[in-house]
Amino acid sequence: MPENPLAAVDPWDRIAEDYAVSTISVMRPFAAAAVRLAGLAGHTRPARVVDVAAGPGTLSLLAAEHAERVDAVDFSAPMIEQLERAVTAAGADNVVARVGDGQELPFADAEFDAAFSMFGLMFFPDRARGFAELFRVLRPGGVAVVSSWAPADRSTWMQMS
Predict the structure, then answer these.
(1) I need a surface site. Which of 55, 56, 131, 151 has the fewest CB within 10 A?
(2) What is the pLDDT of residues 12-42, one digit of tens each?
(3) What is the CA radius of gyration of the chain?
(4) 3-state DSSP call for residue 117?
């Protein structure tokens, strides 16, 4: 399998600002569904959440409405800057954003109640390692929600020019 150019940080660094503006409306319904699937809406106890490959924070901000704390990680510093701007604008003081590698998460084992990667893990050079890291940081009984597009050759949306 040829290396995916979107597994590198440079393309994401270059598009961070436009991506944050242009994709939130497209990604928000998926993020809302993920929050529901994870059972965060109506959560009765404080939840710790990690959002891996968080991009501009679409999922992070929705999860923050239901969680004690959301740790958002992305390997692109400009994406994290966009996320931090969104966090400030939303007044979401329970979201902590940082630059980091989803294949080597900077967290202790069993630290989170829920782990997400919305359209991010699919670009990891080592997807198995990304899944292993999500599992490692989840508490027993925790839930992970990972989304992915269909392969480009089977996705009408991805083939549109």
Answers:
(1) 151
(2) 666 666 665 667 677 788 888 889 988 887 7
(3) 15
(4) strand
DSSP label at 122? G
Q: Tell how strand 48-52 and strand 138-147 pair up.
A: unpaired
The contacts of residue 13 (CB under 8 Å, 6+ apart) are 76, 77, 78, 79
Output helix, strand, coil percentages for the chain, rounded to the nearest 5. Answer: 45, 20, 30
Question: Which DSSP helix (H) or strand (E) runs through 31?
Answer: helix 9-37
Q: How many Cβ atoms are within 10 Å of 113's Cβ, its own excluded?
A: 22
Total Cβ atoms within 10 A of residue 126: 13
- Burial of 128 from C-beta contacts in 10 A (0-12 / 13-18 / 19+): exposed
Residues 47 and 24: their CA atoms lie apart, in Å, by: 24
Give residue-wise pLDDT tens across range 47-60: 899 999 998 999 99
pLDDT at 157: 52
Q: Which helix (H) or strand (E) holds 34?
A: helix 9-37
Instruction: Report whether 48 contacts 111 (CB < 8 A).
Output: yes
The two three-digit tokens of residue 66, written as one number: 């239901």
Mean of pLDDT values over 117-131: 88
